[in-house]
Write a structure and sequence with these properties.
Elements (H helix, E strand, L loop, with lengths): L10 E3 L2 E4 L3 H10 L4 E2 L3 E7 L3 H8 L12 E7 L5 E9 L3 E7 H13 L7 E4 L4 E6 L1 H5 L12 E3 L26 E6 H12 L8 H10 L5 H4 L26 H10 L4 E8 L12 E4 L2 E12 L3 E9 L8 E5 L2 E10 L24
Antiparallel strand pairs: 1-2, 3-9, 4-7, 4-8, 5-6, 6-7, 9-11, 10-11, 12-15, 12-17, 13-14, 13-16, 14-15, 16-17
Helix pairs in contact: 1-6
Length: 367
């Protein structure tokens, strides 16, 4: 059996494949469909039984009871105060609901779901020891031999940033940077995963690492629970009502807060996309403080170096933070100037576009 570490140029850690020597070039290949990404930081849960969809519907933020086989969506599990605890990509094959989750969230989510079964006809299993997740464009992933135990390939197509039925867009911009996002994730068995890796070792298949995947995600302002969520996160703050929340479905834990915040239109924080000054080759880390002048207004959640945008980041800041000034990010190596690319409006009913501010020396990053 071939190993990822045998792929020419591969750098592998506990989270899987980081890169294969050139993260910027890997981004281009991944975005164009010329590469695949083994997602070692994703896990696979299965929920089987005749009550699975109505049960998940009752627990999560998404309307799932009548989810058609093969249709992709995502769900959030909230605490009683509406804070995000878990997130999962969801696709049902007619017999089993498949949940694709961040690795660090797999065991907690599986444990919590198992405790909530009661007398319902459902069974939750962690299938990560036998199944893997591979990402790429829809066309690239469609060519893989995804598992299909019920005749429907288990391939999840990311709905972001389209507004799903029952959802709501907080970021009102003419050209959402995620509009061209083409991303899918296939669940494959050990034999198919080995075939992909063996072909990559032989130079027949191009692979891209986690750093490339994350850069494309951050550039599309796409939230991820294991990176962008803290213990206080409301789905509104990351614009997650687009794809993961159905505002008119039945009751679920945290629904009262979701409805109240949406109706009042004032989430405590909002996500901002930052264009970082990369002149000193210094990048912030998750949790680094964002400030205006001497006043701290929030913290960085995600950081990446994009092949076109250069150094970029997502941050959660106070709703009242100004949108017409440059921010400063305090890092261990000193402050970094950051221009606000876009701001999620604080008012749910806002319809005006959010102005883009001048960038700080935007340039194409060198490959």
């Amino acid at each position: 059996m071939a190993e990822l570490s045998e792929v020419p140029g591969a750098v592998v850690d506990d989270g899987g494949l980081r890169h294969v020597g050139s993260p910027l070039a890997e981004q281009r290949r991944l975005a164009s469909g010329a590469a695949l990404a083994p997602l070692g930081d994703r896990r696979v849960l299965s929920v089987s039984g005749p009550d699975r969809l109505s049960w998940l519907d009752s627990l999560s933020s998404q309307a799932l009871t009548h989810l058609p086989a093969g249709v992709s969506t995502e769900m959030l599990i909230l605490d009683p105060n509406g804070r995000v605890e878990h997130a999962a990509a969801v696709i049902d094959d007619g017999e089993t609901a498949w949940l694709l989750v961040d690795a660090v969230d797999a065991e907690p989510l599986a444990t919590w779901l198992s405790r909530m079964r009661f007398r319902l006809r459902v069974e939750v299993k962690d299938r990560s020891d036998e199944l893997s997740v591979v990402g790429g464009t829809r066309a690239a992933v469609a060519a893989l031999g995804a598992v299909a135990p019920a005749g429907v390939p288990v391939v999840w197509v990311d709905p972001w940033p389209e507004v799903s039925p029952g959802g709501w867009a907080y970021a009102r911009v003419e050209d959402h940077p995620g509009a061209d996002r083409d991303w899918a994730e296939a669940v494959v068995d050990a034999a198919e995963f080995d075939r992909i890796v063996t072909a990559a070792v032989a130079g027949e298949v191009a692979l891209a690492g986690r750093e490339a995947v994350e850069a494309l995600r951050v550039a599309a302002w796409r939230p991820r629970v294991s990176v962008d969520a803290d213990e206080r996160l409301l789905p509104h703050e990351m614009d997650w009502l687009r794809t993961a929340v159905h505002l008119s479905k039945g009751c679920y834990r945290g629904q009262e807060t979701v409805a109240k915040v949406h109706n009042l239109g004032h989430p405590p924080r909002r996500v901002v996309a930052l264009q970082l000054d990369g002149s000193d080759s210094v990048l912030p880390a998750r949790g680094d403080v964002v400030r205006v002048g001497d006043a701290a207004i929030g913290a960085v959640t995600s950081v990446a170096v994009h092949f076109e945008e250069g150094p970029i980041a997502l941050a959660l800041v106070k709703r009242t933070a100004p949108a017409d000034v440059a921010y400063v990010v305090d890092t261990a190596d000193g402050p970094i100037a950051a221009a606000v690319e876009t701001v999620v409006p604080s008012d749910a009913g806002a319809t005006a576009g959010v102005p883009r501010l001048p960038r700080l020396g935007r340039r194409r990053a060198a490959e």
